[in-house]
Amino acid sequence: MGWKRLFSLSNITTGIMTLFLVLMLVNPSVKAAVMQGLMKVGLFQPAVPEEDAVANSMAPDLALTDGNGNTFTLSSLRGKVVFLNFWATWCPPCRAEMPAINALYKQYKNDKNVVFLTVDTDGNYQKAKRFIDKQRYELPLYVAESRIPGELLGNSIPTTVIIGKTGKIVFKQEGAADYGNQKFIDYFGQYIRK
């Protein structure tokens, strides 16, 4: 009688839920997978602003370096729409939004008017590159060569900023978001066509 009581449906369900919660707390991949699932059902949508609600302040300059040691600045990209994402490999929300960012990148990677910059906030290019490669993402990876200005990155990662062709910030999202959302894709596309 004791074994039947120990392996009751209620105890098994409680054990599975407890295991799931522990995994969510200690494993960034599990937490990221749950967040990706929630994105697919409509949560974590980017806050697309109304046209007149955009602050349109000039983006401060920032020096970035790629894996080959090539350095450039944001100001050198004027005339292009810049999708700038700050993230880290250990960050579950960052991991959760990466598939949608990668899909958006693949959609626009051949457009000469658009530049995607994924910036590892830990400054460890090799570790971030291993993560990108393991996940089979095509995203271009960079590290900051100078202090990241607060106008671009506050106290939260992931943070995504879109800089319009004139160098003005037209969008900023702190926290994970589903950039595969059609409303966001339409919003992003309007800056490319301008």
UniProtKB/TrEMBL annotation:
Q: Which UniProt keywords apply?
A: Redox-active center
KW Cytoplasm (keyword) present: no
**Domain (Thioredoxin): residue spans on this chain:** 53-194
- Which InterPro entries does the record match to this protein? AhpC/TSA (IPR000866), Thioredoxin-like_sf (IPR036249), Thioredoxin_CS (IPR017937), Thioredoxin_domain (IPR013766), Thioredoxin_ResA/DsbE_sf (IPR050553)
Q: Name one Pfam family in it.
A: AhpC-TSA
Single GO MF descriptor: antioxidant activity
The molecule here is called TlpA family protein disulfide reductase
Report the source organism.
Chitinophaga agri
Q: Cite the source lineage.
A: Bacteria, Pseudomonadati, Bacteroidota, Chitinophagia, Chitinophagales
